[in-house]
Write a structure and sequence with these properties.
The complex is a heterodimer of chains A (295) and B (328).
Chain A (H helix, E strand, L loop, with lengths): L2 H25 L1 H8 L7 H8 L1 E5 L12 E8 L2 E8 L5 H6 L7 H16 L3 E8 L6 H5 L2 H14 L4 E10 H5 L6 E5 L3 E3 L3 H9 L5 H8 L3 H4 L7 E3 L10 H19 L4 H13 L4 E2 L6
Chain B lengths: L1 H11 L6 E2 L6 E2 L1 H6 L15 H8 L6 E3 L4 E2 L11 H12 L5 E8 L2 E8 L10 H16 L4 E7 L7 H20 L4 E10 H4 L8 E4 L5 E2 L3 H8 L10 H7 L4 E2 L2 H16 L21 H10 L1 H11 L1 H11 L1
Helix pairs in contact in B: 5-6, 10-11, 12-13
The chains are: A alpha/beta (295), B alpha/beta (328).
């Protein structure tokens, strides 16, 4: 065999590998869930450490508590002061307990609202990181106004005139996730998920058996590549091979690049227009027919 | 003859079509129950009612003009669990006679013109998908553009799972719709009817200017079963009930169905009765010293005894009857 045919053969095999890997990524939604939930995956605090300089955490909702499932504070990102708010899951068992596995209570959402208002007052861009299985499912949380806390956080975000970029970095579980993602631009890491319900929950309701979670995961189409064409997210951020946990520094570098680009663009837009455009972004979400029929 | 036999049988087996209350177990004639606004005449249990019946109860007769009914549900994900989504939709449409889980349009409630939408729990659990979200958006947009109040009767199990993350986005979309309504200073009233849960109570429904619920309605974001399974907590027996939510400060009022129309009409008038945007206030000119104007009085007359009773409690019997005299 000549050298030329070898390189052809190599190219053919490389293409095959690329296609196969793509297929795997497209079809094996459950695998994505496993990566999104991987305990070693970088969390909000890890990215804050890698991306934000002089971070100063600001705690408490000024009403009754400090919910550790939501962390937030001020810091510098690429030369500008920003407000960062995100779910925090924790890695060790102690951390996970402290942070309620990233499941926020009303106090957490009210803390977020307070920090968003602070950002608005001082014209600071807002960066949020979404990483939660969902809002905390407890009696005290419910009776403390969980529903309204989530609703109000979305409304507060909708009304901000400062640039807002949300990034899904792990699990984006239901309303508890969305409450921190009413943003001008919604970015999503390659192996993150974003769904209306957990695959287990969906399987329990529609299949009447949570063992069907992988099937439910497939049906819900919760991965970045599936959500991009629907307009639910605006940009997919590539991860190091096998997932962000394999190379957190590289994952953070790509995140920095994307966030920087998005903020640069958003900062060019006048504040009132930014708010209008954000509202318009969410207004367009949905798929319906019948427009041609007379109302 | 067959007819004779039939009559004889009906006499022998009394009340073959009797309705039985799911709560107190007492029976009654279905027509009587319906005439009682689908509230059990014996124990006061509020039955779930569909969007059409709700509109008939709350909107002034003949005032409702449906809009946005042309919007049609699609199957963006090709969702298939034990049954394909389009099949589930067709079933729901056939049994309910509705195209989707919400019906909206223009109406007047106690002579107060408004945009009015009612959700229907019998249609796939009143779940909020793209079309419910879009109809709500258009209702909000119409209220803002036409300077009309927005009234929504919310009853839902939450987001429509079959539309995946798109249904989740309807929470954000309808919350943005509230921003639109607020910006236009259009009064926004939500009536939560049993059950009002999940993504609906955690979005637009909790963001109204005035949030009220029907007696006994269950309202929660996370349901008792999920809480018990996840956290092993024991739940209070009245967890999520409208009455408990009222005590906890999450509602403005719990209103029996018989009083709902008059009270909603009152809210709409009060929210419209302040400053007029040109710096003037209706009371400051000195023509009107107190309370509701002639239209509210007219509503009170129409709504009948329930309102008169409430008014006599609020105002004291003498004043209420004096005002009634003035009306006539």
């Amino acid at each position: 065999m000549s050298g030329a045919s070898f390189s052809e053969e190599i190219e053919r095999l490389q293409n095959l590998i690329r296609t196969r890997r793509h297929e795997k990524r497209r079809h094996d939604t459950w695998l994505t869930y496993e990566i999104a939930r991987n305990k070693d995956r970088p969390r909000t605090r890890d990215y804050i450490g890698l991306l934000i300089d002089d971070f100063e955490e600001l705690r408490g909702d000024r009403l009754r508590a400090d919910d550790r499932a939501v962390v937030g504070g001020l810091g510098w990102f690429e030369g500008r002061a920003v407000m960062v708010v995100g779910h925090q899951k924790g890695r060790t068992l102690n951390e996970q307990t402290e942070h309620s596995f990233g499941m926020a209570r009303p106090e957490g959402y009210r803390k977020a609202q307070r920090l968003f208002a602070l950002a608005e007052r001082h014209r600071l861009a807002v960066l949020t990181f979404v990483d939660t299985p969902g809002a905390y499912p407890g009696v005290a949380a419910e009776e403390g106004g969980q529903a309204r806390a989530i609703a109000e956080t979305m409304l507060v975000m909708a009304r901000l005139s400062v640039p807002v970029v949300a990034t899904l970095i792990g699990e984006g579980g239901s309303g508890g996730a969305l409450a921190l993602a009413v943003a001008d631009r919604v970015l999503m890491q390659e192996n993150a998920t974003y769904s209306v319900i957990s695959p287990e929950g969906c399987a329990a309701i529609l299949w009447r058996d949570s063992e069907f979670a992988p099937q439910a995961a497939e049906a819900l189409r919760p991965t970045a590549s599936q959500l991009l064409p629907l307009g639910v997210i605006d940009r997919v951020i590539e991860e190091p091979r096998g997932g962000a946990h394999n190379h957190p520094d590289l994952a953070a570098r790509r995140l920095r690049e994307a966030l920087g680009e998005e903020l640069d663009i958003l900062e060019q837009i006048p504040p009132t227009e930014r708010r209008m455009l954000r509202r318009e972004r969410f207004r367009k979400l949905g798929v319906w027919g019948g427009e041609g029929l007379s109302p | 003859m067959a007819v004779t036999v039939e009559f004889a049988r009906r006499d022998a087996v009394p009340e073959p079509h009797r309705w039985t209350c799911p709560k107190c177990g007492q029976g009654d004639d279905p027509e009587t129950v319906k005439a009682n606004l689908s509230v059990c005449p014996h124990c006061g249990h509020h039955l779930r009612i569909g969007a059409r019946e709700r509109i008939a109860q709350l909107a002034d007769t003949g005032s409702f003009i449906e809009r946005w009914s042309h919007l049609r549900t699609l199957d963006p994900l090709g969702f298939n669990d034990l049954m394909p989504y389009p099949e589930r939709l067709r079933d729901a449409q056939a049994t309910s006679g509705l195209s989707e889980a919400i019906v909206g349009g223009n109406a007047s409630i106690g002579e107060a013109p408004c945009i009015f939408a009612a959700m229907d729990f019998s249609f796939l659990g009143g779940s909020m998908g793209s079309v419910v979200g879009e109809r709500l958006w258009r209702a909000a947009e119409a209220a803002a553009a036409e300077h009309l109040p927005l009234v929504v009767v919310a009853s839902s199990g939450g987001a429509r799972m079959q539309e995946g993350a798109i249904s989740l986005m309807q929470m954000a979309k309808t919350s943005c719709a509230v921003d639109l309504v607020n910006e236009a200073r259009a009064p926004f009233v939500v009536v939560m009817a049993d059950p009002c849960t999940g993504g609906v109570v955690a979005s637009f429904a909790s963001l109204a200017d005035i949030c009220v619920a029907e007696p006994g309605a269950l309202l929660y974001f996370t349901g008792p079963r999920v809480i018990a399974e996840t956290t092993k907590e024991s739940l209070p027996p009245d967890f999520g009930s409208a009455e408990r939510n009222l005590q906890l400060g999450h509602l403005d009022a719990v209103i029996p169905r018989h009083e709902l129309k008059a009270r909603v009409a009152t809210y709409l008038r009060l929210l419209k009765g302040g400053g007029q945007g040109d710096g003037t206030y209706p009371g400051s000119a000195g023509q009107r010293r107190r309370g509701p104007g002639g239209m509210a009085q007219a509503t009170a007359r129409r709504a009948g005894s329930a309102v008169t009773r409430v008014r006599s409690v609020v105002l004291g019997r003498d004043r209420a009857s004096a005002e009634s005299d003035q009306d006539s």
